[in-house]
Amino acid sequence: MVKLRLKRCGRKQRAVYRIVAIDVRSRREGRDLRKVGFYDPIRNQTYLNVPAILYFLEKGAQPTETVYDILKRAEVFK
């Protein structure tokens, strides 16, 4: 099963996250299938590759709660 979830990057006390499509059994920093977005909570910036996200959602990928909130805020589900 594939999930859309956050992968931590950046320095100490300065976390930024990549939104990735990843196998459920992989750990948080594990090998991802594809990078589909970027999220910086400090600057509140988001970059989303919407066609790739919609592709994985159509194939049955489940977003985590946090990724779901980010996608909802970006109006991906309309």
UniProtKB/TrEMBL annotation:
<dbReference type="InterPro" id="IPR000307">
    <property type="entry name" value="Ribosomal_bS16"/>
</dbReference>
<keyword id="KW-0934">Plastid</keyword>
<dbReference type="InterPro" id="IPR023803">
    <property type="entry name" value="Ribosomal_bS16_dom_sf"/>
</dbReference>
<dbReference type="Pfam" id="PF00886">
    <property type="entry name" value="Ribosomal_S16"/>
</dbReference>
<keyword id="KW-0150">Chloroplast</keyword>
<comment type="similarity">
    <text>Belongs to the bacterial ribosomal protein bS16 family.</text>
</comment>
<keyword id="KW-0689">Ribosomal protein</keyword>
<dbReference type="GO" id="GO:0005739">
    <property type="term" value="C:mitochondrion"/>
</dbReference>
<dbReference type="GO" id="GO:0009507">
    <property type="term" value="C:chloroplast"/>
</dbReference>
<dbReference type="GO" id="GO:0032543">
    <property type="term" value="P:mitochondrial translation"/>
</dbReference>
<protein>
    <recommendedName>
        <fullName>Small ribosomal subunit protein bS16c</fullName>
    </recommendedName>
</protein>
<dbReference type="GO" id="GO:0015935">
    <property type="term" value="C:small ribosomal subunit"/>
</dbReference>
<dbReference type="GO" id="GO:0003735">
    <property type="term" value="F:structural constituent of ribosome"/>
</dbReference>
<keyword id="KW-0687">Ribonucleoprotein</keyword>
<dbReference type="InterPro" id="IPR020592">
    <property type="entry name" value="Ribosomal_bS16_CS"/>
</dbReference>
